[in-house]
Amino acid sequence: MARLESAETHEERWDPAGEIQWLSDLLHGAESGRAAPLTWSRPELTGPLADALRRYARTLEVSVWAALGSSELATQEVERAGRVASLLDDDSGFLSAQAVALPTPAGVSAGIDLDGVEVLAGPAWCTPDPAARTAQRRAFDEVRVSARPTRHGAFGPFGALEDHWSGLPEPARARLHARAVASACALAAEHPDTYNGELPRLLGWRVEADAAGPTRRLHLLTERTTFVTWLVTNRLAGTPEDDARTWSGEPSVRADHLPVTIGLVTADGYVVLPQRASDVAVYPEQYGSAANGNIELRPRHGVPADVDADGMVDVVGAALRECREELGSRIDLGRDDLRVSALLRYSDARECAAPVLLLAGRSGQGLEEVVRGTRLAHPVEGAFELGREVLGIPTDPGAVALTVPWLRGLRDEGRLSTPAFVSTLLLLAENVGADVVREALVRPAVPRRPAGVRRLERDPGAPGRLAGPVRRPRATATVRHRVR
Question: pTM for the whole thing?
Answer without folding.
Answer: 0.87
